[in-house]
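Q: Hi! First time doing this. I have a protein sequence and I read that you can turn it into a structure. Is that right? Here it is:
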Amino acid sequence: MTDTTTFRLGDRIVNRMGYGAMQLAGPGVFGPPRDRDAAVAVLREAIASGVNHIDTSDFYGPHVTNQIIREALHPYPEALTIVTKVGAVRGDDASWNPAMSPAELTRGVHDNLRNLGVEALDVVNLRILGDGHGPSEGSIAERFTTLADLRRQGLIRHLGLSNVTSAQVAEAERIAPVVCVQNQYNLVHREDDALVDELAARGIAYVPFFPLGGFSPLQSSSLSDIATRLGATPMQVALAWLLRRSPNILLIPGTSSTGHLLENLAAADLVLSDAVIGELDRIGTTGD
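A: Yes, that's right. Below is the predicted 3D structure, encoded as structure tokens:
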């Protein structure tokens, strides 16, 4: 029987339920957390609970999240895969600004190396700042080539993409292998349905950001009704739906609460019948 709880990410096998570290920074993903000890505790509980895939970036904070990860987990467990991203910087006003020149991307990689305390990064995603939280077409060759060069230098093991189109994935793959794509996708936002299936056929991981709606959490009366019937929370059902959606989907829900972390992880054990899947699929088309 095929193992559906794990998936290959580059040369690593990771559990499909991972952890996103963005919420470990302060409000607005800027500055230090209100309780640094609690942030450290969440990371350690994640590892103790079987998480071996953590998503982060040095522009979270900035620098704060990676420094907390290093404090909590370094020296890192051998099985742990840390995925980071470059392509943006934070302004003094907490703004998110593109940082896409070769020099800026190189500096971003070195910032991640330094603050995580590693000699090579497991996976680096090129994050394209498109139209809002959605991608926009256009060549990414020059930017991706910069990261491919850093990979050849041994500073990066694997490369991924974030906020991109199918055409941009194809363009990148002509330059270097792509092991994962991280785009916005959840029960309601399903513009990437075709891309999810396309990547699955090629053995490439798809990692939804905002799997629970992000800054605007999913709200649906139908979702709430289904969750009540199953004795689960709406967010657990939404995560379980993603795990059922395709075997190449890796989840990285984030939280700064140990209790909420354990609640998210429990979604991996939630069994959804075909009938329930049908109900949930209809939410994606009606938004109810």
